[in-house]
Design brief:
Elements lengths: L1 E6 L1 E3 L5 E2 L6 E2 L5 E3 L1 H17 L2 E7 L5 H9 L4 E5 L9 H14 L5 E5 L10 H9 L3 E11 L3 E7 L5 E7 L2 E5 L11 H6 L5 E4 L42 H11 L4
Parallel strand pairs: 1-6, 1-8, 6-7, 7-13, 8-12, 9-12
Antiparallel strand pairs: 2-5, 3-4, 9-10, 10-11
Helix pairs in contact: 3-4
């Protein structure tokens, strides 16, 4: 069984600068780490590898420095790391990101199962996984809270939505699942795996490696949505104390109206 796990490098903190021109995050302005939800996806794949002797490819789209998290995936026993990177992919929205990932997966050959984290901590859309599956024209399930078993031709999963509805779904291979954070507990990186995989390289995929080499379908050009305005939250803390009196209600009303709460 061949598994692809989609992982992403995200800012390590909320203190990230924003490009005032195109409204995108300046990712170099903050430390970086692997998206926590993707760590869960990777752990899910590793458990399947231990049980069913699967081959795991960790796939990430990002700038060259994202190679760091792919090398981290080797410490958790991923078999292969692939970095999807090209200036043509920069500034992609959900659709352009999903399209680039789907095109990259097609270059990897036959894949049985794609595993994604529920969402990322920088975008929080939870749409890239399902959108990638749609572009690949394969079945998919989101909110997967448990993997029951691998069948002869597919996978049986438990799905749990935010409104507490539950379902058991069998998906035929190839397919994609997006896993919930609570599906498993993530193990610590292994020194043993580090020694075993210390000489492994990370493969790079660029626009020229894609079947579709039209730059208009990627990045900002391939994004039908645009960020009109984005700004960091105001961390200033101001306190207003209203003294007890007959007009305190009116003063409170005026303050709330000024703050556009009312």
């Amino acid at each position: 069984m061949k598994i692809v796990v989609c992982i992403k490098q995200v800012p390590a903190s909320s203190a990230v600068d924003i490009d005032p021109v195109n409204g995108t995050l300046i990712r170099d302005s903050s430390g970086a780490k692997m998206n926590p939800f993707d760590l869960v996806a990777l752990e899910t794949a590793i458990r399947l590898k231990e049980q069913y002797n699967a081959h795991i490819t960790a796939l990430s789209m990002g700038p060259p420095q994202a190679i760091k998290i792919l090398k981290e995936s080797y410490l958790l026993d991923a078999d292969e790391g692939v970095l999807l990177t090209d200036r043509a992919f920069a500034g992609a929205d959900v659709l352009a990101t999903s399209y680039a990932i789907s095109q990259a997966i097609k270059t990897l050959g036959e894949v049985d199962l794609i595993i994604c984290g529920k969402q990322t901590t920088d975008g929080d859309t939870a749409q890239v996984g399902p959108a990638t599956a749609e572009l690949l024209n394969i079945p998919h399930a989101a909110w997967v809270s448990r993997i029951e078993k691998i069948t002869g031709t597919g996978i049986l999963v438990h799905q749990e939505s935010d409104d507490e509805r539950r379902a058991v779904i069998e998906l035929p291979f190839p397919c994609l699942i997006s896993v919930e954070k609570g599906i498993c507990e993530v193990r610590l990186p292994s020194y043993k795996n580090g020694l075993k995989n210390k000489d492994k390289k990370v493969k790079t995929i660029t626009l020229m490696d894609m079947k579709d080499k039209n730059p208009d379908n990627y990045g900002l050009f391939g994004s039908p949505t645009r960020v009109e305005k984005i700004f960091p939250p105001d961390h200033r803390k101001e306190q207003v104390v209203l003294e007890e009196g007959p007009d305190v209600g009116g003063k409170l009303y005026d303050l709330l109206k000024k703050a556009h709460v009312l």
